[in-house]
């Protein structure tokens, strides 16, 4: 009996030892990740695959080679490109009919959570897909993942007024430059609120008061500004080809008259300026009508100064004045129809852009009808929405409007519920420099339509571009930093903020697209306050003084901000922000007005700076002229 008791005790002890013995590191770290997947209408998503993508693999994707901006690139879509060759290797769970999933035996590590719905009503990604979490964080409580709906194939545009009839809390979008870009002279639409931009029409007011411009020094080798323009007659009258005089006519409309300075017998021509183009951010141009089409002319730079020798940095800059005068025949002419605003520019401004060829070889441009739109451009008696509206980012809304509440979320795109690559391409289709079917800087497909939100970046490149992004001439000499304007997206997708193992950023991480904040440039938080608030919202442990000591060997105790070094304004769209550092001989560097989104710090040995004369050098932090410490003498020497 005793022996039996001892035997039973030994067996029990052995079991207890086995139960409480230390586990191997892998066994100890293994955990179960659970959660649910639904859409914005709280409808469960059944039969969806939930993947855990190792953050280390996403990091490796960026290290494999420089980020390629071409079709079928292996590394420009952080989640999709990492997942594609590893779909069968990564931890995975499938949702049941209630949207529940469970992923057992998840090893210790750091993962991005990525959802691939199997239905045709939802898009891949999920609202937590862009921020990596540790195994412990993932297993702590059940995850609640929301995915975006997908635009039905039969959906059509309805206009922002229709959207705001339900979503009135987003009416702040009316105050953004996305809605104020195109405006009828003197008649802002009901979709436009100019209160945040009191100087919006400063240039327009000068023209309405009356102004004459002299177009001289024609240089056919230049781009859109082949002429020097001034309000004073040049010293040498022989250099003037023509003048353009702006005036407010008896009917109250703004017009301008061109007069041939080479041939007084050439009949003067008069044009009506119907719309303004910009004005709130660095420049304003003016759209005049010839026949059925609009053309841009003249650029007002609010920060420009006549004293600047650089023609691009004066208050007024030529913008395709060469379209109004034939330098070969010395005769006034009308602009070429093929260069109209509707065909060359409008796709990145109009909501629901269309361009339909006519039998006679012409074309008719269109945009979604909206009773509160800017102007009736297609002659159907209903105004059109000529600026970036809700549906540019969320997709055509007709089916969303008609759907029952349970289907509302499944019929509209929510960019915040997409992975970075699909969210970012919505913005970068215009904030980069691709070429599309029309062979100009508009990424339209063979049907002359812009992308539908939710489209993958690669599908967009395949179907909407003939040139994926900017040409070499649009970069500085280093071939890295953007020189031409509106290339913020060109930069962003090559940055570590876009592809990393912590958080893959989209534009909306920093910008408030609906204009709900009063911060300049639609930022969510201020970048130039004592706390560096926006940057510090993620980079919590960085202090400027020790950071600058570590990076450049000198503690910057003066008031500087993260963006002063990491978001250099390398691009120029208006006159720029004035002079930078000036050498002893008076030659100065410049500060431009569009921010690089590479988030790096270009140094003074950069090819765009070293060995380049000051006026032609790439703006960098060192040449901004922020103080007396930076010595720019001799930088122009190789």
Provide a descriptive summary of the structure in words.
By secondary structure, this protein is of the alpha+beta class. It has 17 helices and 22 strands. The chain has helices spanning 2-20, 25-29, 55-64, 78-83, 135-140, 160-164, 177-180, 202-208, 341-344, 390-394, 398-402, 420-428, 457-464, 488-492, 533-536, 544-552, 562-566, and strands at 31-39, 49-54, 92-94, 100-106, 110-116, 133-134, 143-147, 182-184, 211-216, 228-230, 240-248, 254-260, 269-278, 284-290, 293-300, 316-317, 325-326, 331-332, 354-357, 363-366, 579-582, 588-590. The strands form 6 sheets. Strands 8, 9, 10, 11, 12, 13, 14, 15 and 16 form a 9-stranded antiparallel β-sheet that branches. It has a 4-stranded antiparallel β-sheet with strand order 3-2-5-6. Strand 13 and strand 14 form a beta hairpin. The radius of gyration is 29 Å and the shape is globular. The chain starts with a helix and ends in a 48-residue tail after the last strand.
